[in-house]
Design a protein that fits this description.
Order of helices and strands: HEEHHEEEEEHEEEEHEEHEHEHH
Number of helices: 9
Strand order of the largest sheet: 8-5-12-15-13-14
Helix content: 40-55%
Number of strands: 15
Distance between the termini: 147 Å
Radius of gyration: 52 Å
Shape: elongated
């Protein structure tokens, strides 16, 4: 009996090694679960880890979302290119060499008071203008009377022409004075006395015969015109008309009937006069006009586009104010210059 009890106790203790095994099929050793099925579990765990690792590699190798974004970006760029407006390349403007203009120049022919000509700008740089006042030398032209004083056409036409020449030079133009008086210059008195010492360019005696005198003028102009071939050239000749004493006239402009360029120049000067009359004499309508006159010798035979200007009636007392008052003579030159500048800018 005692031997049987002792045998049972020995068998009981030999079946287990730890109290944790009672009622618990698993136990933990160093944070890892172990059991009698640990081999199979290890294989399953290893397999699961391998599959997990492969999934990570696959996602890293094929970023689906990133690729979809790249596709959208490519589509957006493609649409942008299709809708893009092609702007043509801007043409390069030709480089224009600027010529340095003198600050001023001195011309004795202008008279002591106006000899120094300050440069205003280069608006007319490269242009050539031929200016000729009517008559001169032995022929004073039409003669008006102011009281007991004589008013010679050539003196007043010359004074306005000289003032115009000075203005054109101030804007950079090359100017040829076809009729020249070396000792008159620009004068600021009302009555300009007659003299007979004018010469024709370059230094020729002016003939008394009218046709010879006009031929002399056109020959001088045409000679220089050929020398300046290719440049912008214009010819303006200035006169004072003579009509009955009771006839009041305005400034008239004549051009060759086949010269569109001459017509355009005449119109630009005429428009300037019209605008200035409206500004300064609103109560008096301006009646001057532009007409073709191919019969005038210098208009017919001059090579550059030509405008023939009549400043008014030297016999009429109202028109005489246009010549007698120096400020009015300057205004005539100013308005002509304004029209010339407009004509050149809009060529």
């Amino acid at each position: 009996m005692h031997l049987l009890a002792l045998l049972i106790i020995c068998l009981t203790f030999s079946g287990t090694t730890s109290p944790e095994a009672v009622g618990n099929p698993f136990y933990f050793k160093s944070g890892i679960r172990h059991s009698h099925q640990s081999g199979q579990k290890k294989k399953k765990v290893a397999k699961a880890l391998r599959q997990k690792t492969r999934g990570r590699k696959t996602s890293a190798r094929k970023p689906v979302q990133a690729r979809s974004k790249s596709k959208k970006t490519r589509q957006s760029l493609s649409a942008t290119k299709r809708n893009r407006t092609i702007v043509p390349a801007k043409k390069r403007k030709p480089v224009v060499k600027k010529v340095a203009l003198p600050l001023s120049q001195r011309l004795a022919i202008m008279g002591s008071r106006y000899a120094t000509i300050p440069t205003l700008d280069g608006q007319l740089s490269g242009t050539v203008y031929y200016l000729a006042s009517g008559h001169g030398g032995p022929d004073p032209g039409a003669i008006g009377r102011y009281g007991k004083q004589l008013l010679p056409e050539d003196e007043y036409a010359y004074d306005v022409t000289l003032r115009l020449a000075r203005l054109l030079i101030q804007h950079g133009a090359t100017v040829y004075m076809i009729v020249q008086d070396r000792n008159d210059g620009i004068r600021d008195q009302a009555v300009l006395p007659i003299d007979y010492d004018e010469v024709a360019y370059p230094n020729q005696t002016i003939p008394l015969n009218q046709t010879s005198r006009l031929r002399q003028t056109t020959t001088a102009v045409n000679g220089e015109y050929a020398r300046h071939k290719g440049q912008y050239q214009r010819f303006i000749t200035i006169h004072v008309d003579s009509r009955s004493k009771g006839e009041t006239t305005d400034v008239f402009f004549y051009h060759h009937p086949q010269s569109k360029v001459g017509l355009r120049l005449a119109r630009h000067i005429h428009k300037t006069f019209l605008a200035n009359y409206r500004r300064h004499r609103p109560a008096r309508p301006y009646m001057g006009r532009v007409s073709s006159r191919g019969s005038l010798y210098v208009v017919k035979n001059s090579h550059p586009p030509t405008v023939f200007i009549e400043l008014g009636n030297i016999q009429n007392s109202l028109d005489q104010r246009r010549f007698l008052i120096p400020q009015n003579r300057q205004a005539l030159a100013n308005w002509m210059c304004q029209g010339i500048l407009t004509d050149y800018r809009t060529r």
